[in-house]
Amino acid sequence: MTDPAPEHRQIGDYRLRELRAENETSRLWLAEQVSISRLVLLDELRPERSELRQAFLANIRAKAAVDHPLIGSVYEAADGEEHCFAASEWLASATLHDRLQAGEPLTAVRMAHILRRLAEAQLYHQAAGHATRPLGLHHIHCDDHDVVRIDNLVVAGARAAEQSREDITRLGAALRPLVADAQAGATRMRTLLSWMCGEGIESPLDWQQVRDICEQIGQQLANPAPTSAGRPGRHAGRKPATRIALGVAGVAAICIVLVLAVRMRPQQPAPAPRPALPDAILIPAGTHPTPDGNPQNLAAFRISPHEVTIGQYAEFLEILDTLAKDGRQNAFDHPEQPAEKTAHLPQDWAALLAAAKNNSTWNQRRVTIDCPVVGVDWWDAAAYAEWKKARLPTQEEWHAALLFQTGKPTAIAPADWLPAGSQTTDRTPAGLFGMAGSVSEWTRLPAVNPANPLGGRNWVIIGGSYLKPGSNALSREWITDRMLRRPDLGFRIVMNAE
Questions:
Q1: Could you please report the per-residue DSSP string of 98-113?
Q2: What residue ranges define each of the domains in the chain, with the CATH number in brackets?
Q3: pTM for the complete prediction?
């Protein structure tokens, strides 16, 4: 592969450092974003292949629409006269291919964790209808703390009907050499990989079944069945061969149970795929009215069209649990977070999450994992935003987004606490929803209450909520306690426009 002296090249804000891959269409570089000293992957369309520009950009747009914590993000795309490129997240941790080449097999419990997370990411692609390139071991990253990330493999076009089955079969075969022998659960994991390849099972596994079986294996290995302490006597002299035979029989019994669980599962129609959550909305730079009536010049920004959901927040908590194994559970905490604030679990989280996963009721209201998360304080919201490389909106940004393409914000009818993406009347013409109802939201900075101009600056909660049917999108509250939690209080995030 030819390396055209990258040390002498800079494309926009990106200094090229190393050519990682190339083909007839493009080159993939490891580059440094100079302004913020961040390493990225830069995918550059070859200048001599300008006739492929539209197809190249279509693939980049498809990748940029992905919003999932396990999948690499696209930061920026540029379509200029001289250069057409996209900068995306560089996943620096070792891949499973690296571990295979280094002869570093995985225990069954680690592989069950990794495969469960892969299944969750693939279920996201499946529900969103994303077409993706074939998934291989070199696309799967896992660090020493078992944080799993996956390269963004999305391409433009419709998802093929057989794509999930083909990915499952390919991955089942590829993972076999990585199973550590003579380790607890190895037989169970090899059996699952055989099923993924279509061996010894009547119907092919789907991603939901892969996820469920991995969760079962992980729970079994984390909580092994209790064994008798054993007393001196007639059992004390049991031959080692007998104990081994019993152990093998026990593993076989577990496998038989899993086989029967899959084979005897009643054939049900596949559930309707969950609609993909909408993308962030760009609010252009310019002078915008503020909630207090004084125009303010704002830089362009992107804002989530919906509040952060229960499912999205649950993924954040899973990352914190993983980081906690290395004592890094505070990695995303705000610098001013008080010492007594030691975790980011929302109020009544266990009950709320269980109800959301089962599409049942919480606080006498039906919830799903796509409903806005509630019961979070300001510190929780700020930590989530930091994890997403985003921030909470200021009240001025939130108000500018509300008014974008909106004629009369008070005419927006408040709606109930509904899943994000629902067809609801609580929607602005630009596609923002939940502004007048759903849940009220935290903002980033304190401000003076215009009803008490001589008072101090307090923290602003903005927007109406389902518990206040008389409120609307112009509703605001000023509070002094950032530890406040309520069943109608959540948040959304904003990002820079670049």
A1: HHHHTT--B-HHHHHH
A2: 6-89 (3.30.200.20), 96-222+254-262 (1.10.510.10), 281-496 (3.90.1580.10)
A3: 0.51
